[in-house]
């Protein structure tokens, strides 16, 4: 899967231009608590697109069982606390089902309808009856630039934003942390509620609600 158009900066980069070292030093911002509140204690979780384990480790610490999946061998190599699989999400077919299938990092906003369907087919294949799928999605207001966001840990700049046909957007994201700078060109597609509902239905899932008022966290269940 190639959701971006490339990146640059120190250390190894994944096929979509994500910087492994940047993922490794990015902090948790409450995502683990949000997910934990939405599922039963000790749930089995399939985490699709685990990166370097930023959310994997807190979920393990909360008592869940996590199988972490990423297409980047450089990412997966940094997740040593649990079972991992190096695979593209669309190609993943395990002979196991899980209480929760988790796909974050706005992967659902890949700007390719066929690829998005493959991602959702993987989610549907691996969620048990009565289980849940949680997706983190981008909303249209997220990529508005130029913009600069600065806190004690990092500086992030959104620049060169392009509005493209089909509710697609392109932008350059530049991160600076501790004197190191990484830049990534991304291409995304914003999804209407009807668009996402139709693709969920195509794979046998239905939206069951949202975890947050801004609708960036979607909960789905098998029909």
Automatic annotation (TrEMBL):
A molecular function (GO) term: methyltransferase activity
Phylogenetic classification of the source organism: Bacteria, Bacillati, Actinomycetota, Actinomycetes, Propionibacteriales
Protein's recorded name: Methyltransferase family protein
Domain of life according to the entry: Bacteria
Keyword set, alphabetical order: Methyltransferase, Transferase
GO biological process: methylation
Organism for this UniProt entry: Kribbella rubisoli
InterPro entries documented for this protein: Methyltransf_25 (IPR041698), SAM-dependent_MTases_sf (IPR029063)
Domain named Methyltransferase: residues: 45-131
Family matches, as PANTHER family: TRANS-ACONITATE 2-METHYLTRANSFERASE-RELATED (PTHR43861)
């Amino acid at each position: 899967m190639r959701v971006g158009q490339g990146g640059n900066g120190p250390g190894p980069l994944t096929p979509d231009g994500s910087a492994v070292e940047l993922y490794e030093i990015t902090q948790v911002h409450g995502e683990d608590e949000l997910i934990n509140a939405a599922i039963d204690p000790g749930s089995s979780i399939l985490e699709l697109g685990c990166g370097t384990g930023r959310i994997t480790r807190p979920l393990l610490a909360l008592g869940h069982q996590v199988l972490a999946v990423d297409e980047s061998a450089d990412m997966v190599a940094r997740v040593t606390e649990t079972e991992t699989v190096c695979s593209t999400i669309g190609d993943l077919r395990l002979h196991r089902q899980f209480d929760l299938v988790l796909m974050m990092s706005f992967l659902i906003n890949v700007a390719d309808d066929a690829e998005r369907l493959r991602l959702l087919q993987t989610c549907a294949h691996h969620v048990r009856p009565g289980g849940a799928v949680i997706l983190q999605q981008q909303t249209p207001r997220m990529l508005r630039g130029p913009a600069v966001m600065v806190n004690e840990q990092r500086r992030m700049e959104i620049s060169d934003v392009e509005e493209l046909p089909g509710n697609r957007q392109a932008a350059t994201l530049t991160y600076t942390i501790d004197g190191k700078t990484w830049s990534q060109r991304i291409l995304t597609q914003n999804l209407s509620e009807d668009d996402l509902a139709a693709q969920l239905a195509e794979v046998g899932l239905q939206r069951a609600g949202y975890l947050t008022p801004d609708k960036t966290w979607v909960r789905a269940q098998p029909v």
